[in-house]
Amino acid sequence: MISPKNKMFRLTGALGAAALLLSGCADNGNEDGAAGEPGDGATQIVVDTTFDIKTIDPAREYEPTGQILVKALYDTLLTFADDDTTTVIPDLATFESNSDQTEFTLTMTEGRVFSDGAPITADDAVFSLQRLQGLEGNPSFLLAGVQVEKVDEMTLKLVTDVPSPSLPAVLATPSCGIVNSKLVQENGGSTSATDSAEEFLNETSAGSGPYILEKLDTASEAILVKNDKYNGPQKPTYDTVILRNTEPATQKMNVERGDSQVALGLSGDMVDSLADNVNVESVPSATVVFLLINADSAISEITASSEFVRAVKNGINYDGLLEIAGRGAAQATGLVPSVFLGALGSADALKYDAAAARTAAEASGAVGQKLTLSFPNDIDPTGLNLTTLAERIQSQLSQVGIEVDLAPAPFATEIDAYRDGKEQIGLWYWNPDYMDPANYLAFGPGQSVGLRAGWPEGSNPAIEALVSQGYTTGDLDARRTVFENWGKAMNADSPFVPLLQPGSNVAYQPSVSGVYYNPVWLINVAGLGIA
Amino acid sequence: MTNPGQAKAQAKAQTKAQQCPQAQAQESAQPRAQMANRRSLTRRIWRLIPPGLRQPLGIVAALIALTWLVICLVGPSIAPYDPLAQDLPRFTPPGSVAWLGTDELGRDLLSRILAGARVTIGLSLLLVCLSMLIGSLLGLLAGFFGRWVGETIMRFTDLVLAFPTVILAMVTAAALGASLFNAVLAALVVSWPPYARVVRSIVMGLRENEFVASGRLLGFSSVRSMRVDILPNTVGPVLVMASLDIGTAALLLSGLSFLGLGAKPPTPEWGSMVSSAVAHFDKWWLGVFPGLAILTVVIAFNFIGDALRDALDPGVEKS
To answer: Which of A2, A3, A324 sits opposite B90 (nearest CB)?
Structure first.
């Protein structure tokens, strides 16, 4: 039997031990952080982020951290400038298209070389793109329905059956990075599913990008060093780039203390309490958080009614949502985020109107009924906690007479209900796959996301006509008009409620320059400079 | 009867007072008398408590637990705000607007903690009662009938005990889907076996006793024998276990909610409150106060359990 005195002694001991353990952890953090100081004149930059990475094989990767690394290691045929996400510019190639936007001729830039010194030819480009298609990996869909042909040593041609004005933007995504075809083939690479080069590419980069891979540990850190043979337009400043897997709370401390120079994973709330010696680049991210209201009356008679959709669209106080989303967030004016061509202005955005919402809710028969709002609770798109957002939506809808039960579930289980169109009301988000508004046409009736809301083909002929125009119109101004009309029609009649674009916050030391947010590759580490 | 020591002290104080100037004597003698009075009052209250229960830690714990139980009953009515209303400024630090601050949605933390007491403590009590009932019943049957009945029940008990408690509860809760009711079921799955084992061993010992045997000889049915002769003798140890278990149950249930397998938002539940505080590391009050609530409940019920064991179990050396 332990006497109480003894017990207290043990308790104190345990607390003391816990305190020691904690302070030990903190000390370790300090030592790791010391990596920020370079020696012998070489420059080094430490970037903290929360790792979401499976591989850095360009044809297989499709996760945020993978995109950052692949962007630095591999050049693409076409690209975007750091500060302009609407205009495609040449990189390894220049392009021309026919007037139907079905044939794209790419001419390789003279003189560009891989990190081993070998010149980059059309063979490499054809192999890389065909490999992306043939692997049937996560990003393979990007080039679905595109025929890739070599014309001569320095020219290749992409042909599509339907007009594809978004193809140049697709070619700028890191997944379309050009690999050294000889080197990759020597290490098991091929353009079919039998390819076995992934392991090799996770240890050695086979590209022409500003950096080459020194070390990759998908659980802790990636180290990139300057590519001495690089002769492209994006001259890197830092000799070494270290990307570390760090918890957001620790990222904040690290960047405040100067243990890291850039922190990518801070939420809006954390940014608000950052120390003054840290700069922040806060912009609305290209992630659109939206509500899906199932239009299938087999799922719910109530949600299928157009009055209910109107009640929800009017019943949400969008400013009240922004309040909890933190710095940089903005109301999503439509499903197409603000950084893209054809995004709507704030005048066309949905508006809060409690009285109209209450009338519509009563007409829909929703008053006195309980509906279910489903959402994934283990994933925070761009630092926004979906549970918090759902609680706020629940409270707002209840004020206009709509009662919803929250049904949080892990992403891995809820995604099936979402994809199968089984949710009454769903809270989800969409990250762009490539920088073109055509990506968002998937929300149309009968399209992949539209079907998830029980919205089949034939539900709205007017919107469907705009969807097909959106896929085929090539002229820039005409495209803008088509997408704006589509966006307005979707706001008025679709079962989707665009809510907000969470802020993208990059916190950085004042010594760093060239910090730009990109919707696809988040940050271009080669573009970082010394202020 | 006058205490000789006390009389001596009084006499001493008097002589001292005579030696000193009058004013000072009055000042010093009065508090002393008051202190003596107070001491004898505490002593008198102390003597009201049965000797077996005279444990300071146990009594403090009982007071804390009692406070929480009262809060369970009246919590919502003494809360300053609606625990679900989101109309205060977000992240207000503890102060005059909200005593314990507000959370990420502008809800009053104090009101949520008070409302959460009903959820956490109420469900813990329910859980302990259920596992006590199920475990005791199975243990009673196993111990009384022995042979294949006992073997079957105890092997099954061993099977459940062989799994790590928290993992099994997590698996069950995940399989059933996240809700408070399912969390209680999941916790129930792992918390009844200890009762079955304890009750069985007590019953096996009692079964051989003469008073049970004579009951049986008088023609008591099995049921009557269990009810009249055996069951009352198992109550003490089972109650001790149960009181020790309330803290563990509270910890298990809030643990499940912390992992997102228990209370659904926006239910004010301490575990899920701590969980949402994790994302707001620098707003210390979000995690500290619900954490303290869990801590005090767990410690209080553990100390009560210890005290009860000391009082009820004659086999244990008194501390």
So the answer is: A324
Q: Where in chain A is the domain with CATH 3.10.105.10?
A: 288-501
Q: Chain A residues with CB inside 8 Å of B276's CB?
A: 385, 387-388
Mutate which of B59, B60, B86 to disrupt the A interface (most A C-beta within 10 Å)?
B86
User: The whole model's pTM is what?
Assistant: 0.77
Contact B105 A395 (CB under 8 A): yes
- Residue A133 neighbours by CB under 8 Å, 6+ apart: A140, A143, A144, A146, A148, A191
- CA neighbor of B183 nearest in space, from B234, B130, B145, B236: B130
Nearest C-alpha of chain B: how many angstroms from A24?
Answer: 19
Cis peptide before B266 (omega within 30 of 0): yes
Q: Which residue segments constitute the domains of chain B, with CATH numbers given?
A: 60-76+107-312 (1.10.3720.10)
A288-501, which class in CATH?
Answer: alpha beta
Instruction: Report the top-level CATH class of A44-282+505-530.
Output: alpha beta
Run of H or E residues at B28: helix B22-48
Cβ neighbours of residue A35 under 8 Å, at least 6 residues apart?
A44, A46, A242, A259
Residues of chain A with CATH 3.40.190.10: 44-282+505-530
Note the maximum CA span of chain B: 88
Angle at CA of residue B61, ends B57 and B67, nearest 5°: 150
Interface of B with A in 169-188 (CB under 8 A): 178
Q: Is 0.90 exceeded by the ipTM? A: no
Cβ pairs bridging A and B (under 8 Å): 60
Interface contact flag, A385 B319, Cβ < 8 Å = no
Per-residue pLDDT of chain B (319 residues; tens, 9 = 90+): 444 444 444 444 444 444 444 444 455 556 666 666 766 777 777 777 776 667 788 888 989 999 999 999 987 788 889 999 888 998 989 988 888 999 989 999 999 999 999 999 999 999 999 999 999 999 999 998 888 999 999 999 999 989 888 888 888 888 887 788 888 998 999 899 999 999 999 999 888 888 888 888 888 888 888 888 888 888 888 988 898 899 989 999 999 999 888 888 889 999 999 988 887 877 899 999 999 999 999 999 999 888 888 877 655 554 4
Quick check: A51 and A250 in contact, CB under 8 A?
no
| Binary contact (B280, A269; C-beta < 8 A) | yes
Nearest chain B Cα distance for residue A391, angstroms:
6
Work out the number of other CB atoms within 10 angstroms of the CB of residue A308. Answer: 27
Residues of A in contact with B55 (CB under 8 A): 4
To test the contact with chain A by mutation, choose from B181, B280, B302, B313 the residue with the greatest count of A C-beta atoms within 10 A, namely B280
Let me know: does B93 contact B101? Beta carbons within 8 Å.
Answer: yes
